[in-house]
Design brief:
This protein is mainly alpha-helical and 229 residues long. It has 2 domains: 74 residues, Arc Repressor Mutant, subunit A (Orthogonal Bundle); 147 residues, GntR ligand-binding domain-like (Four Helix Bundle (Hemerythrin (Met), subunit A)), CATH 1.20.120.530. It contains 10 helices and 2 strands. The chain has a two-stranded antiparallel sheet. A hairpin with a 3-residue loop joins strand 1 and strand 2. Helix 2 crosses helix 3. The protein is globular and about 55 Å long.
Length: 229
Amino acid sequence: MPGHSTQKSEYSAKKIKELLFSGALQRGDKLPSESKLAADLGVGRSSIREALRLLDASGYVKIIPNRGAFAAATSEAEIPSPRSWLELNTDKVAEMLAVRCCIESFAAGLCAQNITDDGIKRLKEQLDGFEAAFDSHDWELLSQYDLDFHRTIMIESHNRFLIQLCQPLLEGFMQYSSQSFAATYSQRNTHSEHRLIYNAIAIRSPEEARMAMELHLTIAKRRVQFIGE
């Protein structure tokens, strides 16, 4: 059983896909509850929740608030292409990125002021994990490390109100991350942008961290808008 939270989410996503492709479910069928999946796979509900968000973003399942997750695809042939997904959701994603640019730039500045030594170490591990996932062409794992990197910056701001405010943004993050990587081939550029953010935070420069995050999310927004043009 994998031990790291990212590995547990990846493991859970793989096992849920196996369930979807096993023939036990038809399109539109409801998946077992988070608690049932967690018990069956021997992981926490948070790992199942993140795995389902990742699969939702990739088109394997459809999450309906207050109802649960439903099978959206029971074979690879039924998965919409990443470009098609982004073309259908361009405006929604661009709006979310505009809000993220404002809030996460502020969070990056606070993070540079308040981050612990352990926090810096965790960011470096996530940066390295992102690069390893890129080298192995594992876009789902890449998206998970992308999320973890941004989440750590939020947490290391040590502003409880900001962390609570940003939770919906982090949940929405998984709706487009893996699709964007696959459709725009932006993985290497994203890694370079993350490294700029990390370097600014590591030297504890709030202004440089704010600017690096703003640049990263502005470029991400432009990538998505380019798909929709």
